[in-house]
Design goal:
The protein is α+β, with helices and mostly antiparallel strands.
Length: 93
């Protein structure tokens, strides 16, 4: 069994990672909010958000959402071993 869980969209299955690649910004925002809901309910301390590199539109929207969400303690770009700039690592309050 893998220790890495992927978000399946249900609050009952909290994940440590959400993959937003290929989604439009508004779809990605909704998926990110659902992932944050699940992480908060499960009392997770960290969430990995995969947005990819592309044009940077998803990364920008992710940053905007995280900056205004009270559940988020802080966030940063992934380190090279975590996915680099294609990933944002979120610390949950």
């Amino acid at each position: 069994m893998s220790t890495r869980q992927r978000w399946s969209g249900g609050i009952a299955d909290p994940a440590t990672e959400v993959d937003l690649r290929g989604q439009r910004a508004d779809e990605a925002e909704m998926a990110l909010c659902r992932a944050l809901d699940g992480a908060a309910v499960a009392d997770l301390r960290e969430l990995r958000v995969i947005h990819g590199l592309g044009t940077g539109a998803l990364r920008k929207r992710v940053s905007e959402v995280l900056a205004r969400d009270a559940r988020v303690e802080d966030f940063r770009a992934g380190r090279p071993g975590e996915g680099g700039h294609g990933v944002t690592v979120v610390r949950i309050r």
